[in-house]
Amino acid sequence: MKYSLFNLIRNTFSGHSRWTPAWRDATPKTHYDVIIIGGGGHGLATAYYLAREHGIHNIAVLEKGYIGGGNAGRNTTIVRANYLLEGNQPFYEWSLKLWESLEQELNYNVMMSQRGVINLYHSDAQRDAYVRRGNAMLMHGSDAVLMKRDELRDMLPYLDYDNARFPILGGLMQPRGGTARHDAVVWGYARGADMRDVDIIQNCEVTGIRMENGAITGVDTTRGAIGANKIGLAVAGNSSRLAAMAGMRLPIESHVLQAFVTEGLKPLIDHVVTFGAGHFYISQSDKGGLVFGGDLDGYNSYAQRGNLPMVEHVLESGMAMMPSLGRLRVLRHWGGIMDMSMDGSPIIDKTPIDGLYLNTGWCYGGFKATPASGWCFAHTIARDHAHRYNAPYRLDRFMTGNLIDERGGGPRPNVH
Q1: Which of 209, 292, 361, 362 could covalently link to 347 via disulfide, CB atoms 3.0 to 4.6 Å apart?
Q2: What's phi and psi for 227, nearest 5 deg?
Q3: Residue 381 near residue 374, CB atoms below 8 Å
């Protein structure tokens, strides 16, 4: 059913009893042209664009839990395209452009809010780095504004400018950046894919990958064997485990990243703000809670929970930037499993196994990349070669040395 003001009024008179489910609870078929393993944002977006852009409709999305129960529902909802390097900025700018029309395309309210993303700087050297990054953004057709201290004080009066351990000198703003509702994005893509005959199969865990003569033939699942011509892996922190079923060892590690939300407040933070002297980022949700996060916990884990030392570290960074946070109660915090690559940039590529395709290594950038990731992964699966936006995200770049090290932290996942 199309969502519109007319249908809302019409269903009001029936007590909202005539709304149809957003997507079908599909029963697995014996064979599909394409199977996407992973029912998060990237997997569902891939299925949606395979059907819409490439006319492939015999598709199944297999999710071991429920739609929106993985990393898609465990992030801090930030959308931005403020990168420096050639391999990253064009891709994320394309993603931001897809975000800007996503609600109209999906006929679904993903609560996209382009409130602006502001990165604070605290030294002359950091200012120069932000000038360079801002110029790179402008050269790729994106938007960037360098802001001085007085401009920031008028816009962000709640920050500590005078007594801070790391004085705020200015910031780099991307006005088109912002936030979106994480699970609504997943539900919107699920609904859009279902409308194009994609089977979305929940509670269906993959237990094995079938191959013959070096080519994919299907998967074993908790709901039986399913044949497939092609398989796409979009399972975030579980990528290593799924790839191992096909005999592959990936250049990624799985780490825990925590996020936090406070009690609800009246409107206070109108933008997304990041702390330049530490890894801390914060925004305010539509419910009024302040949503923030920081660094990885620093050890390999598949657990969706964090440790207390990192809780303390994140809160310390927040207090250094915004002392008034100390008066708030943190209602809850949670962890997501990050698939950290060796250079901090993602992988969207074919694998050496015929019919097996890989989407992984998103580190901190998975949510904001959702539309472009699905769009590019669908192109790669359908055409059997990369699009120019994801061509730099080759799997073999770690062997050839063509790394995309945005942070400049070296070949170690935990430093990115």
Answers
A1: 361
A2: -85, 155
A3: no
**Token pair for 130:** 């932000």
Structure tokens given for 200: 């979305």
Helix (H) or strand (E) holding 117: strand 117-121
- Answer yes or no: pTM beyond 0.70: yes
Q: Pick the closest to residue 108 from 198, 190, 51 (CA basis).
A: 190
Could you count the other beta carbons within 10 Å of the beta carbon of residue 49? 27
How confident is the prediction for the chain on average, in pLDDT? 94
Question: Maximum CA pair distance of the chain?
Answer: 67
Contact 238, 303 (CB under 8 A): no
Distance of CA 219 to the CA centre of its chain: 26
Phi, psi of 100 (to 5 degrees): -65, -20
In this predicted model, what pLDDT tens digit does every residue of 313-351 receive, in sequence order?
A: 999 999 999 999 999 999 999 999 999 999 999 999 999
What's the DSSP call for residue 33? E
Q: Is the dihedral of CA 408, 410, 411, 416 positive or negative?
A: negative
**Length of the chain counted residue by residue:** 416
Decide: 281 and 273 in contact? Cβ < 8 Å: yes
pLDDT at position 257 is 94
Can you tell me the distance from the alpha carbon of 356 to that of 374, in angstroms, rounded to the nearest whole number? 16
| The two structure tokens encoding residue 354 | 């015929």
Geometric angle at alpha carbon 225, from 221 and 230, rounded to 5°: 90
**What distance in Å separates the CA atoms of residue 107 and residue 2, rounded to the nearest whole number?**
7
- What is the residue whose two structure tokens read 């914060």? 282
- Structure confidence by residue, pLDDT tens digits, 261-276: 999 999 999 999 999 9
Estimate to the nearest angstrom the gap between the alpha carbon of 116 and the chain centroid: 18
189-217: average pLDDT: 96
At 244, give phi and psi (nearest 5°).
-65, -30
> For residues 368 and 281, what is the distance between their CA atoms, to the nearest angstrom?
14
